[in-house]
Amino acid sequence: MYTEVGCVNRTKDVNKLLCGRYKSDKAFNDALYTYLRNEDFNPLWDKYNRVQFLRGLYEINRNSKHKITLGLTDCNFSWKRIKTAEEYKNFDDSPACAYRDSTMCLHFSKMYAKQKLKNGKRKALIITNHPHALNATFEGSDYHRQGKWLKERYGNDNVKIVMLNWTEYTDSNDQQTSLVADGLWDATFEVVDCQPFGMDIKGTPFGHTPYFNDRYGKMKWEDVADGVIYYRPCYETVLTIGIPGIVSANFEEEFMRRIKIYFEAMELSVPTLEEAKPAYDRFVSFPVTYPQSPDSVRESIRKLLAE
Prior knowledge:
Elements: E1 2-7, H1 11-18, H2 25-36, H3 48-62, E2 71-74, H4 85-92, H5 95-98, H6 100-113, E3 126-127, H7 130-133, H8 146-154, E4 162-164, E5 167-168, E6 178-179, H9 184-191, E7 197-200, H10 221-224, E8 227-230, E9 238-241, H11 252-265, H12 273-281, E10 284-287, H13 294-306
Parallel strand pairs: 1-2, 1-3, 4-8
Antiparallel strand pairs: 5-6, 7-8, 9-10
Helix pairs in contact: 4-11, 6-8, 9-13
């Protein structure tokens, strides 16, 4: 298994964490937090689903003789090597960061080539954020998204891009939640009582739906992906940030060192500890449909079925 999140040079560390033995759940949690503080090139990665994901993999490994290993594909980075805002900016402006999709594809390819054959074959699951997974090239450029790089590298039939259903969420004051095909896809989900299912989309009304982002030219969904998995209705989905306890008392000094370097490099005003800590350490969860209520979005979807 491979993920976008996580610097490639932390791959050995994450597998030591996931395949390790711990005296108690607290001991694992302490090791998990120690690892998380050094996994990313942001001051910290604040998305709580990363905690759930790594805990879940550990639980599977703990109860199975067949261990799942994780390959991290993002840019090579270590906070120990960064001493100044200028050094961070040099990293942020580097080709590896500017062309992250090709960087992540290269890192995956190197690790995948070392995978042991099973029944004469290699298989991998790559979990990445929606834009990176696309089989697309930015309009007017030769810069491919990771999905397109992988298809060109391994062959179109050997790489399948499968999207989870989603909504284009916003943290602004916009009053309209953006649903794929104005909610028609989600209405289809209601027809089957929102039971999870997956399907190929090429040659279907789903595949023929215009892709909503013109940054890649005029494309259809079947151009950018091979399939879709409906997992859960958008109005039941939440966005959750903040990892309680990640900025412990003995980590505060290092945390503020990173905050100062990062904000200065981004030419932003440096916050105080009291201002910065809650952004990473406080658990906050809200509906993906915000600022609309989940109920109002659900009703708008169901009204489509009556039309």
